[in-house]
Structure formats: C-alpha cells, structure tokens
Amino acid sequence: MSWASQRRFFILLIVGAIAAAFCVVVLIPTLYKTPSCTDGIQNQDEAGIDCGGSCAYLCTAEVQPPIVLFTKVLQNAEGRTDVIALVENKNADVAAKDVPYRIALYGEGHSFVQEINGTVDLPPRTTKPIYLPGVVSGGKPIVQAFLEISPSAPQWFTLTADPRIVPKVSHTTFVGTESNPRVEAVLTNSSGVPLTNVQAIVLVYDTNKNVIAASGTVLPVISAQGQSTATFTWNSAFAGIPASAEVVPIIPLP
C-alpha cells in the first residue's frame, strides 16, 4: 500500500471513528427511549400497556371495576333537587384516586337535561356516597339520574395499609320535628392529630332500605383524641317515614 493510500485509510478511519462516536453519544440516546411506565408501550415486565409488573398502576383486568349501586333524584318540598349515588369498590388492598364520573340527568319522557362531571376517591373495600345538592336544571324538572364510571377510568394502585385517619361515627339519632327534621351523629378522632374541614354525608333510609333523604355538612375541626357532633338539617318533611340513617365521613386519599 502506497503512502498516499495509507494516508487516505487513516483519514477515513478517523472520520469513521468520529461518526461512530457521534452515533453513540448523540443519536442513540436521542432515538432510543428507555422503557418506562408512561411510554404507551407494553414492555419491561408490564402485564398490559403501562400497568402491572413494576409499574405503580394495576391493569384493569387485574381488578374488579367499581359498581354503581344506585343513583337517585331527591325532590325537596321547597323545590330543590338533590342527587345521591352510591359507588362500591370491592377490591381488597386496591384503591383509585380522583376517578372521573359522569351523571346524566333526565326529565319527563326521558328527555336529556344536562350532564354533571366530577371525580371520586375509591379506597379499598368501601362504599362511597356521591352527593350533589341543589342541582340547577334551568327550570326543567329532573326525574331520573344515571351515574357512569368507565371501567378503564380508574388508575388502580395497591394500598395495603390505609394511611387516612377516618373518624368513627356513633350515636346517630333523629331529632327535630316532622316538618324540620334533623340528624345528629358524633364523630370521634382517635388519632393524635386534629382533623380539619371534615366533610360528612348522611343517607336516610325507610323501612325498605330506600333512600328518602340525604344531606351534607362540614365539621371545621375534630380535635386530637376528641369528638365533634355533625348536624344535618332539612327545611321540609322527609318523603317517607325514616327508619335509619347512615353517616359517612369523606376523607380523601393522599
């Protein structure tokens, strides 16, 4: 090989080495994406797309979907319309946060009135009420409501130990008068830290376990190792004869 050929060879070799180094340093990191739980591809040890395996969220096929037990329209004598629904999460040690839901409201003749959207937390093995007071319908009477949660909407994750501090409910009683009924319940905080702005919802049942009324309130504070009384009021008589009341504290998932 002549000296000129050797020189060209070494120049090409240097250029090739520079090009190879460029590919390693710039192109490969740019074009290659490390598998992750947010890349929209089933890879790593995932059981589905970005779920299962080492990913934080479980796959839909691995859990039971939330169950809507009922959705009911409550008409109050003063003309106010409330909506109450009950959603159940049957999964043990599995929770979902900020699960989107849709409530479709209908009038006479199944005429669509409006749609309301919101979110709800679903802790493990819980039945969660969703209460919408004073629904505005533009003067159209609402006679039916349907709550829907898409089976793929919840982002399920494992929650073996519930970190929430949930007050214990006791001494639930009916007080007040027939035309101005009232329900009171004692909420006890057994923890060492105060709880603030605790929302509570009450469902009033008749003897057939049908919901005839609902209401909500907020307790500004339940002191550490203390108690507070939740009071629920109505400005008109119940739609039926009350037999029992269930008070549910609403404590968000962290």
What does this structure look like?
Keywords: Membrane, Transmembrane, Transmembrane helix. The chain crosses the membrane at residues 9-32. By secondary structure, this protein is mainly beta. The chain has two domains: 63-158, Immunoglobulin-like; 168-250, Immunoglobulin-like (Sandwich), CATH 2.60.40. Helix content is 11%, strand content 44%. The chain has one helix spanning 3-31; strands at 67-75, 81-89, 94-106, 112-122, 126-132, 144-148, 156-158, 168-176, 181-188, 195-205, 211-222, 227-233, 244-250. The radius of gyration is 29 Å and the shape is globular. The protein starts with a helix and ends with a strand. The mean pLDDT is 90.
Q: Note poorly predicted spans.
A: none
Topology order in helix (H) and strand (E) letters? HEEEEEEEEEEEEE
Tally of DSSP β-strands? 13
Beginning-to-end CA distance, first to last residue: 74 Å
Based on the coordinates given, report the CATH architecture of the largest domain.
Answer: Sandwich
Radius of gyration: 29 Å
- What is the arithmetic mean of pLDDT? 90
Structural class: mainly beta
Beta fraction = 35-45%
**CATH topology label of the largest domain:** Immunoglobulin-like
- How many separate helices? 1
- Helix content percent band: 10-25%
Shape: globular
Number of structural domains: 2
Largest sheet: number of strands, sense, barrel closure: 4 strands, antiparallel
Please identify the top-level CATH class of the largest domain: Mainly Beta
**For this structure, what is the CATH homologous superfamily of the largest domain?**
Immunoglobulins
